[in-house]
Design goal:
9 helices; 2 domains; 0% strand; mainly alpha; 167 residues; NDC10_II; DNA binding
């Protein structure tokens, strides 16, 4: 168990479940890739309630793909916005304190006795990482949303007249 802890820590993976992490993650990865639930169940030798209750998410993936405008096939995605790569300087203007908080969290994780009262939890770490991804996604999506909703009041924000944004 200690070696599993060390391996997960080295890889930057935070999880309270150590011994069954591979069983659950392999089932979820197969589900994300569109593998039939019967095949996943057979691989793990689970009954239906165990597999759905403990190892798979309850997300209706096919429905989510369809509602997002994609094929229900898990292998065909194209996001036009992904071709846009906003400059780091512009990203830092969305949720500008995120970098500071992330640096504080990293410092606290390296040295828990550094006097910073920030809580070092899996949730805080995941939240900050999500915020850092969402600011880039927000900027990428804004280019397309501006075309479809040109009169929306959000475009009056100074961020959208920033020279970095206008490039």
């Amino acid at each position: 168990r200690n070696s599993i802890d060390k391996a997960l820590s080295f890889a930057g993976i935070k999880s309270k479940k150590k011994t069954h992490i591979n069983r659950g993650s392999s089932a979820r990865m197969a589900d994300i890739l569109g593998v039939n639930e019967d095949q996943i169940r057979r691989q793990g030798r689970w009954n239906n309630s165990t597999m759905n209750g403990a190892y798979l998410t309850t997300l209706p993936r096919e429905m989510m793909r369809m509602m997002a405008g994609f094929s229900t096939n898990a292998r065909s995605f194209y996001l036009a916005r992904a071709a846009l790569d906003p400059p780091a300087a512009l990203c830092k203007k969305v949720f500008p304190k995120a970098d500071e908080w992330y640096d504080r969290l990293a410092a606290h994780q390296q040295n828990p006795d550094n006097g910073d009262p920030i809580e070092s939890t899996v949730a805080v770490d995941a939240f900050l990482k999500t915020i850092m991804v969402l600011r880039k996604t927000f900027l990428q999506d804004s280019v397309f949303m501006m075309r479809s909703q040109p009169n929306h009041p959000i475009w009056n924000h100074s961020l959208f007249s920033d020279p970095c944004y206008l490039e």
